[in-house]
Specification:
By secondary structure, this protein is an alpha/beta fold. The chain has 10 helices and 5 strands, in the order βαβαααβαβααβααα.
Length: about 250
């Protein structure tokens, strides 16, 4: 069918909408699972992956090879979930990584700042039984906006709020979650959103290229020197890593 990428501002209702949409469509809901899968498959720390997925790298991290490797693993895992199709992806930068893919619907969920603060306080109170401080809640929401925006600008040199990154931008201050789910479902079920061989190949090619980057970073010694038969090192390394990435 299709792939849904959902970017959202804190307090705008993104997770609730994404989960409801996945249930309505019978799709896989991918949020925390992306981090768990990346950590399990590549042997990396989940808390480190979570930090890099939600925040812009610090000045030190920008020059750190290990940080770059972790970010590439997150990108690879996002693309691999997209390869499986029929998924609602809530994190991973899919609005950029999957740009131009015909069967990908990219959605941005937004709302005014004060509204989002109130909604976050209400949601937290319902879950914990304690009402957060208004100022602390506002600081948290503001910081989350800044970190997410900074991450996208650093990694892809784009503005996370740029409407051209999305097919649908929804303000949830007025529309109820159920209404947003209905609109998104209607778009996903349209014939032009059906998965095609061309679209599937686009995703597969990007996932393969990303897996090769992870393999090169994991085994840097393989990218140096000729092989035993004296063949060109760049050619033989890329071919070998490409074959491994397909496994």
């Amino acid at each position: 069918m299709a792939i849904v990428v959902m970017s959202h501002q804190m307090g705008a209702g993104g997770p609730e909408i994404g989960m409801a949409l996945a249930q309505r469509l019978g799709y896989r809901y991918v949020n925390q699972e992306l981090l768990l899968d990346a950590a399990r498959r590549y042997g990396l720390a989940e808390d480190r992956l979570s930090h890099l997925d939600e925040s812009k790298p610090t000045l030190f991290e920008r020059f750190d090879t290990e940080t770059r490797h972790h970010i590439t693993v997150l990108q690879t895992t996002c693309l691999e979930f997209a390869e499986d199709d029929n998924a609602v992806l809530m994190r991973g930068g899919g609005q950029w990584l999957l740009r131009g893919v015909p069967h990908v619907l990219r959605i941005r969920i937004i709302a005014p700042f004060e509204y989002r603060v109130k909604q976050w306080i209400k949601r937290t109170a319902e879950m914990t039984g304690e009402t957060p401080n208004q100022r602390a809640a506002a600081d948290l929401v503001r910081r989350d906006d800044t970190e997410k925006s900074g991450r996208m600008r650093y990694l892809y040199e784009v503005d996370i709020a740029d409407p051209t990154l999305y097919e649908l931008v929804v303000n949830t201050e007025k529309l109820k979650h159920e209404a947003v789910v209905g609109v998104a479902e209607g778009l996903v079920r349209r014939p032009e959103m059906a998965t095609t061989d061309t679209g599937r190949q686009m995703v597969a090619s990007r996932a393969l290229a990303s897996r090769v980057q992870v393999a090169l970073a994991t085994h840097p010694e393989r990218a140096r020197g000729e092989d035993a038969a004296g063949r060109d090192p760049a050619h033989s390394t890329v071919r070998r890593l490409t074959d491994e990435a397909r496994c």
